[in-house]
Amino acid sequence: MENKLITLSMERQKQRFKKRLIQIILMVVLVFPACNSEAKEKNKNTQTENQLKTTNKMGTIHLTKEDFLKRVVNYETNPDVWNYLGDKPCLIDFYADWCGPCKAVAPVLEELAKEYDGKIYIYKVNTDKEQELAGAFGIRSIPSLLFVPMTGQPRMSMGAMPKDQLKKAIDELLQVK
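Above: the chain sequence. Below: its structure as tokens.
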């Protein structure tokens, strides 16, 4: 009888040990890669910030709702009429800081802002901070790019685009050469 109790006790200890070992293995497998990806993400963010600093001549311009109403269109006073207020065509990037494709497009837009300096404005609207503005334009997917020519209606494009496609869209939709 005593032998059975000792055997049962040892079996329970083995089971506890196995459970503990599995917990530790799971923690190592799940936590360490997450820590590593956070470090990679932080490094990637630092690289993007450095790229922005080195390529910024005129650069992109961040807009709040108030700025948007003054520089682009006052949709509150004229909700049914598109009346662009700018003196040059513009491209508006609706983005979020956490969005991977938005982060990929950001340095390209900075380069384009430098290349098209004096010909167009490239604006950025943070959809997390400017939710009302994003809602007014029906932004459901980011990045969303709004191409606003001097005359005519603006056109929306959803998703990230490579630089050559962005240049083609700027040249054709905004009529910039």
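DSSP finds five helices and five strands in the chain.
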